[in-house]
Amino acid sequence: MNQSRHALTISLFYSLPLLTWLSAQLDYIGWSATGQQSVFHQLLAILLLFQAMATVLLLINKPVNKWQHDVSGLSYILLFPMPFLALIWLTGSASLLDLTRGLVLVVSVAAFAFLIRRSTALIPARLKILESGLSLAYVLIAVMIWNYRELWWDWLAL
Amino acid sequence: MELQAGLGGHVASGRATEIQVRLFAASPVEVELEVMDGNGVTTLPLLLDEHKEKTFWLPVTPERHRPIQVRLLTSQGTVIEKVLAFKHSRAGLTVISSSIPVQKSLNWHQPSSDISPVVLSAKSLPHSSQAYDGIEAIVTDSLSLSSLSHNQYRSLGNFLGQCGIMLILDADPLMLERVHQFSGCNGRLIHSFEALSQVTPLLLKLSAVHPPKPPSPQDLMSLGESALQNQTATSLSLYLGGYMLFITLVSWHMRKARYLLPLPVLVAAAGILAWSGAGSHQFITWVETESNDNHARVSSLLLLGGDRRGESQATLGAETKLFNIRGDAHYSSLYYPLDASHRVLHGHTHLLSPRAYQLTSVARQSSRFQISISDGHPQVVFLGNTSPEEAQLMWRGKSYSVPVLSRNQRWQPDEILGQPPASAAERLLNRRLAYVDPALLLPFTTDSANSSTPAIGWLVIRHNPGRLL
């Protein structure tokens, strides 16, 4: 499975349960402005969290291949939830500025993960042991994303 | 620019009142008057003549903790800005004509917390129908009534049409009969009184037989909102589900999945295109009248937008009372066109978040059904030409289907055929009805294809209890 398909699978994996949850919530809340805002705020927070985690999951413990494949996979992760983000904007739950800040955060995580990945290619064959250390860095990023989620949700005013 | 609060600056909390605006310009100028109150921004375009004063009354809905702001704007920007505060009272106001010393009677004989007396001269009585919103009763005399202006008469007629309470000192029977004819509830809430000591007991008795207040916005919402909301919620779920299914199927059959990268952006753009732009509006209407009454009290819930993100607008009658009940009022505006025969309500709305307004007005209509009590059972007589097919009679907590009747045909319900109230409208009517009182429930719809104001609604015809005093 190439990186694009892998990214698509990961994106579908988290967005299908999200869609089920959102459909149920829309049925439940009615046309209440506050209820609706709260649901779409939660949707945005979960989307950004899963997107950031997905970028790490995409690159962890994979043989190094062409950088174009990695970029293509990461682009999939970043672009896949666009229709969700469009709906969040249409409901007025988040401004374009809030959405941009969220995307900047995810892009930063993706760029960081990508740089770690590319640095793996620079490790000489006799120091292959260091690759395990870089994998550990991915795990650390994932743990930090999860552990400090409240912090950056606050920063994004979610 | 000079401002003066109507009703002596008194207002029943959360209700409408009016302000007098006096404008004077040294040279001819086109201006816009902006009033910021509980309903948002009301804009009134005006043309001021040279050295001529322009005076008019404007309905406003003050908020408890915020004075209303009035701004006069020209093409160069703001010219004058003023604020006006009101004295809020919890109970509805009882307006007493200053030509009769009845206020002493109210305070001395039987003081009641249900009565908030406000003493006004005849010329200070409301000039717009909306300003009667916070008025429960009027205590006046023939002299004051005869000195009202045309606008004041029209507004008073509207108030009486909506079953307003009025006591007239030593009213001539002929004059009283005339007032009964253009009053709602068959005129039973209009009375004459001779002694000042009668005022408070009369007001309390009439308040007790006053028809119930219009259904709350929440009640009206329960009648029609879910259908509107379900349509939008389902289309959103289908949009997202369809997108995921499509991208899965296409990527499955495509050798190079990276070519699908523009797809999410295209789908998002399509969603924005589909759900942006001018939204629609919908009325959910509840109309109540009494048997033999030519006046109907109309209470509507206006849902503005909610099906799109963008500007939505609806046109309202000039005399319709309007209350913003959902959505930030400061993102909506009312606009009076120059002819002032109607108002246009604008609002920026988001997807799934319609603005909601409660509207109340009075409608004149000829009676189609007559309900009376015969041998302890309700009797329905059809007076129109084409009998509706879906009429229901509510009586003693049960719902009875009224058959299609021919003109002047009588019908009485068979108690065995009574069903518990099934629909939301039947349940709402049942809650608003005394157990022994019968009432007819007639649903109606206005098709959006044939009307600019799509509406679903119910007409309730109550039994006329007759004069009780």
Question: Could you characterize the architecture of this molecule?
Answer:
The complex is a heterodimer of chains A (158) and B (469). Chain A has seven helices and no strands. Chain A is mainly alpha-helical and 158 residues long. The model of chain A has no long low-confidence stretch (mean pLDDT 84). Chain A has helices spanning 3-29, 33-59, 67-79, 82-90, 96-122, 129-147, 149-155. By secondary structure, chain B is an alpha+beta fold. Chain B is built from eight helices and 28 strands. The longest helix of chain B is centred in the middle third of the chain and has 37 residues, at 217-253. Chain A binds chain B through residues 2, 4-5, 8, 12, 15-16, 19, 22-23, 26-27, 30-31, 33, 36-37, 72, 75-76, 79-87, 89-93, and chain B through 225-226, 228-230, 233, 236-237, 239-241, 243-244, 247-248, 251, 256-258, 260-261, 264-265, 267-269, 271-272, 275-276, 303, 306, 308-309, 326-327, 350-354.
Features:
heterodimer, A: 158 residues, mainly alpha, 7 helices, 0% strand, elongated, B: 469 residues, alpha+beta, eight-stranded mixed β-sheet, seven-stranded mixed β-sheet, 22% helix, 38% strand, flat
Gyration radius over CA of chain A: 17 Å
Structural class of chain A: mainly alpha
Number of strands of chain A: 0
Shape of chain A: elongated
- DSSP helix fraction of chain B: 10-25%
> Any low-confidence stretches of chain B, pLDDT <50, length ≥5?
none
Poorly predicted ranges of chain A (pLDDT <50, ≥5 residues)? none
Helix/strand structural class of chain B: alpha+beta
Work out the strand percent of chain B: 35-45%
What is the count of DSSP helices of chain B, taking H or I runs of 4+ residues?
8
Order of helices and strands of chain A: HHHHHHH
* Sheet having the most strands of chain A: none
Strand content of chain A: under 5%
Mean of pLDDT of chain A: 84
Task: Tell me the major beta sheet of chain B.
Answer: 8 strands, mixed
Question: Which pair of chains has the greatest number of interface residues, and how are they split between the two chains?
Answer: A-B, 34 and 41 residues
| Strand order, largest beta sheet of chain B | 18-21-16-15-28-27-24-25
Shape designation of chain B:
flat
Record field, number of beta strands of chain B: 28
User: What is the mean predicted local confidence, pLDDT of chain B?
Assistant: 83
